[in-house]
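User: Sequence recovery, please. Input:
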């Protein structure tokens, strides 16, 4: 009777409720750990997961597991516990770095150029925000305590692995930085050469306001597959792209390289099907584009076989805006009639376009491609052939059309890059 009374009492119900909270709440029960994955680089089925860890943009602490660092698993567990106290947005990965990659035949350590540490020292790599994975120095995740001897002097003890120190580093480094772009080299390196990331350009007159910067940092946190950069349109502009600007507004342009490879989380089957369908359409468009850009211009079968003009930049700009543009009128407008028209002391190779004729077919080449063809003919009597000329012209036009739209050019009132 006493037992039944106790069970039915509100005090006992409260005990059951507290027990349930202890069992299910991370604060009272099991420790909350950072998400974790174990990867074998030689396993083709884990190729997408490895790509996500290295290049996906999400913050990752990568630990190499090999014969020299057999005790690294305990350290990884400690780091996961420290990170889990603060966030679940930083992932850890235990990777067999000495395994050979199926594609390159090299180990992952060799591919990433990782330095070996002493026996028992883990190799730790930080990957985040779409930047190149970097090996962390030993001081990032170790500490060296000092203790006093009997004579009052300080004596250093051996270096100890410090999970909290590494966790603090990751929590600080995971915050995306939105850098500004102010040169052609910078936009090529940081934006157009990204294979595993989309590039987002934020265009605004002047600098981002405090609230705008806060917003786009938050967007960077949410969309880790996009790397954002700013361009001050009061100093620079994108040629071939018209931006409708209003006072204080930010315009966003997204770019994807032609060899872009998705490197984010595993997709659902329907998403993957859509991506494959889109990729097939892009490839079909690329093939048609190559056919068009390889087509020769029609010229008279008589007259000089090689002609020169200072019109490459104008021809490139017109191709960027009109796919059916006839470049010959522009070529003739700036054509060089004789060697007297060329100042060899101040020759601008970047604007020279060379028209090489084969019958009624004319191919427009830049200085590098044209000089290669002409040197072959003059030195070795070798004609490269129509198909080779078409390929060279495609390379020149394809790069020209792409970069004429995207490269930064100074505005008339800005400083030159």
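Assistant: Recovered sequence (417 residues):
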């Amino acid at each position: 009777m006493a037992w039944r009374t106790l069970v039915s009492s509100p005090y006992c119900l409260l005990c059951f409720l507290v027990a349930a909270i202890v069992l299910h709440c991370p604060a009272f029960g099991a420790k909350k750990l950072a998400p974790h994955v174990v990867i074998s680089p030689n396993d083709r089925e884990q190729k997408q997961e490895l790509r996500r860890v290295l290049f996906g943009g999400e913050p990752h602490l990568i630990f190499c597991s090999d014969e020299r660092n057999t005790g690294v698993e305990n350290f990884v567990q400690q780091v996961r516990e420290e990170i889990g106290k603060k966030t679940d947005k930083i992932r850890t990965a235990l990777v067999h770095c000495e395994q050979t990659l199926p594609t390159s035949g090299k180990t992952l350590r060799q591919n990433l150029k990782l330095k070996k540490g002493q026996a028992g020292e883990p190799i730790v790599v930080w990957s985040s925000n779409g930047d190149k994975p970097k090996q962390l120095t030993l001081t990032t995740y170790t500490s060296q305590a000092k203790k006093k001897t009997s004579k009052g002097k300080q004596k250093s003890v051996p270096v100890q692995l410090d999970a909290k120190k590494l966790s603090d580093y990751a929590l600080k480094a995971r915050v995306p930085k939105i850098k500004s772009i102010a040169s052609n080299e910078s936009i090529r390196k940081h934006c157009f050469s990204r294979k595993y990331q989309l590039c987002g350009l934020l265009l605004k007159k002047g600098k981002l306001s405090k609230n705008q910067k806060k917003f786009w940092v938050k967007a960077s946190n949410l969309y880790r597959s996009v790397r954002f950069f700013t361009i001050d349109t009061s100093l620079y502009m994108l040629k071939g792209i018209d931006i409708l600007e209003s006072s204080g507004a930010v315009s966003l342009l997204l770019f994807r390289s032609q060899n872009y490879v998705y490197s984010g989380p595993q997709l659902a089957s329907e998403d993957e099907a859509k991506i494959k369908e889109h990729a097939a359409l892009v490839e079909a468009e690329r093939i048609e584009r190559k056919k068009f850009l390889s087509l020769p211009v029609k010229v008279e079968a008589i007259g000089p076989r090689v002609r020169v003009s200072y019109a490459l930049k104008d021809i490139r700009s017109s191709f960027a805006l009109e796919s059916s543009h006839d470049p010959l009128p522009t070529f003739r407008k700036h054509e060089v009639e004789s060697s007297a028209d060329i100042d060899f002391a101040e020759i601008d190779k970047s604007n020279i376009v060379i028209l090489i004729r084969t019958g009624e077919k004319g191919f427009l080449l830049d200085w590098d491609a044209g000089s290669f063809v002409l040197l072959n003919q003059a030195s070795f009597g070798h004609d490269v052939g129509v198909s080779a000329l078409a390929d060279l012209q495609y390379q020149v036009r394809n790069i020209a059309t792409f970069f004429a739209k995207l490269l930064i050019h100074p505005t008339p009132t800005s400083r030159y890059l």
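The first strand starts at residue 36 and ends at 39.
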